[in-house]
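Notebook p. 47: complex prediction with NAP.
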Amino acid sequence: MIKKPDILKNRAYINGMWVSAESGKVFSVVNPANGQKLADVPDMGKEDTEKAIEAAFLAFPVWRSKTAKDRSKILKIWHSLVLDHCDDLAALLTAEQGKPLTEAKAEILYGASFIEWYAEEAKRIYGDIIPTHKEDARVLVTREPIGVVGAITPWNFPHAMITRKIAPALAAGCTVVLKPAEDTPLSALALAELAQQAGFPPGVINIVTGAADSAAEIGLVLTTHEKVRKISFTGSTEIGSLLMKQSAGTIKKISLELGGNAPFIVFESADLERAAEGAIICKFRNAGQTCVCANRIYAQDSIYEEFAVKLAQRIKALKVGAGDQEWVQIGPLINGQGLEKVKMHVQDALEKGGKLVCGGKNHDAGALFYTPTLIRDMNAEMLLNQEETFGPVAGLFRFGSEEDVIRAANDTPYGLASYFYSKDLGQVFRVAEALEYGMVAVNEPVLSGESIPFGGIKQSGIGREGSHYGIEEFTEMKYVLLGGL
Ligand code: NAP
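Predicted complex, structure tokens below:
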């Protein structure tokens, strides 16, 4: 139950006002655990997005001219408001997204950590004085906020994917137009309400909501509008590529956090208990719907059988149900499309020789629930090997040598997160260096945090979020030559 209902909003937020769509259209947000409607939210389009961009454009000179310390102060108030509302924000997140309440709370704290981190970083956007190349001149380099940022976020982390983008943008002095995912706009609107309470001036943060059918229209305006200088997107590689093409016409700076296909490798020297525990966390968090979820689990020949048993025991013990119940570990999938993809991957793996150890069917907790599944004897021909499953299905592959598994792990167009377990120090260095991924976790299943540079290579994206690097994505370098001195 939500105790402070101020965070429940059902209108979009443009120029400091809560507004309906120009067209008057709305779409429904539903709870994936039971199909119940939570709210009707404005289904916006071109005109609404243009208004939001104008508001952000007009607010930019006001916001950028504040001192870094003043921006930092407002970010810090926003941060404490998010913490004050943590339980309510988590309940709302669980209601619209489905993840278990404990995970939702962890996401709120994770999301808040970016606001706190960038409230501090705002004050540390330093420049340089470069030794001059002319006797009577001096050379200064500064970093300036880039301008209006168009941000588009996915449903799987409806809170943290927003703060991870907009906290650094705001800290740098940029203003923002954000489009959250159709399935999870309420978490975005709750953040906007708390931002309003924190004292951000009108137009600094704008939220344009839209149904999936309107996403292309809103995205087209954001990516082609001359007044938007930067696009920051988290979502699928397919849409990221489209947005990159669309942004080319106006040469926007872009950052893309896209899909992954993470390998999780267990070498024979590994602590198998720790690796099995890790595989469960890494694979089944958010019902397997994270971009950094283990997608392909590889175990070395000599420990394959033992590891398969340890994994199966843990998977069979996972508790499935509606996320608002304390004991639940696996919630529903986000929607029917997500469920169909999971079923297709399982069917394909079984047709191509995979052996079902457990699960492999819908769960009777509700229409969008799937039973945690383990398939062994996986091979490279299977769909699960080639694309992210985004569901509670673990596929276990077998490998012989270190060289073989590195080749298999790298044989994908994606390069986001990777994981391996080994106690052999030489192997740790060799494998960490050989994996073609933006992030490598050794003997650990969770690699996120506000202080680390999160991001991928290859078709998993461009740029980094979090850490002191994350703020650079929202600044431009300026060189000033002072002559005739
Ligand atoms: P998606 O379909 O690409 O959607 C992401 C966002 O883009 C949503 O807000 C969506 O709106 C919007 N969108 C869809 N079509 C658009 C268009 N033509 N123009 C502009 N915007 C458009 O991805 P998703 O299914 O929501 O999210 C899952 C994907 O995100 C996975 O691939 C996952 O790996 C990736 N992801 C990556 C990271 C990372 O940090 N690398 C983090 C989380 C998720 P609608 O929802 O209204 O359609």
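Notes: Residues 415 and 437 are 4 Å apart (CA to CA). The chain has 14 helices and 22 strands.
Next step: compare against the earlier run before touching the bench.
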